[in-house]
Amino acid sequence: MVTLCYVDALARLLASAGDIPQRFGMLWVEASGAPYVEPDDYPDVVYLQLERLARLYFLSAINLLGVPELANAVNTYLRQLVELLAQVLWIAGLDQGVSGDQTGAACRAICAEEGATGVAAVRAEHLPEQYHENASATRAGFKERQQQLAELKKKHSCTCRPWDEGRVSAVLRAVASHHPDAAGFDPLYQVTSNDIHNALWHRYFQEVAPGVSDMPPATNQQRARLLHQALSCYASCATTILRHHSLDLANEFEVGVRALLTNQLSRRAVNGELD
């Protein structure tokens, strides 16, 4: 359970949401038969890495939402969650081949790792030595991993291109065209992308006195809506991963999340009745 640093009307809702990743972990073990996977077990090894990252951002968002003065910073984590979700949906093939990649989940997972490794390798080349104790070893490690992934692609006859963030919107739109419940993810990606580059910072300021603007704490309604967005992103990611092994357990997980999103406390918060 997440330890909240601020107790208020939403504390119970936030605490319940913070337990969702633990529930995923239990269902994953039941579905796959083991809490961990072998390094060459694709797509599971990449799926679990993406889930762990999504879990990190989701739980970080939960903690920020517990403090009204910090809640608006959650948009930074929302963008990361949407990008991770797009990768998971792409690996699962839910984009219906819109990217031109007709390969299966294992190959797409390899290509997802290939894309991440390629970006890391390029950035490592420009990393100032003073910010890295062993930059040369890091660069060598990335290059070695790139070679290993190239061999894996050849072994599995993978034809997919390395994943890159330029595909996020296209994948999200393609998934939404077949799954209406996913229609909100691409608009969320566009808004949060602008937000983290300070293009929408003005929307956080309000007039608190004649001629004076300031950033007031987020209301319960604002925080509840941010929670819904964060939980929807994480849950969609986790549900898609579970579905790879067990449709029944994925549905069980989805039902639990939906119950939290639609319970009386949640509805009251989203409707502004707790402010």
- Order of H and E elements: HHHHHHHHEEHHH
Discrete helix count: 11
Rg measurement, Å:
20 Å
Coarse morphology? globular
For the record, the count of structural domains works out to 2
Notes on the structure:
With 275 residues, this protein is mostly helical. The protein has 2 domains: 11-100 and 167-270; 102-160. It is built from 11 helices and 2 strands. The protein has helices spanning 11-18, 20-32, 44-65, 74-91, 105-125, 135-155, 168-178, 185-196, 220-243, 247-262, 264-270, and strands spanning 206-209, 212-214. A hairpin with a 2-residue loop joins β1 and β2. The protein is globular.
Quick rundown:
The chain is mainly α and 275 residues long. It has helices spanning 11-18, 20-32, 44-65, 74-91, 105-125, 135-155, 168-178, 185-196, 220-243, 247-262, 264-270; strands at 206-209, 212-214. The chain folds into 2 domains: 11-100 and 167-270; 102-160.
Please outline the helices and strands.
Layout: H1 11-18, H2 20-32, H3 44-65, H4 74-91, H5 105-125, H6 135-155, H7 168-178, H8 185-196, E1 206-209, E2 212-214, H9 220-243, H10 247-262, H11 264-270
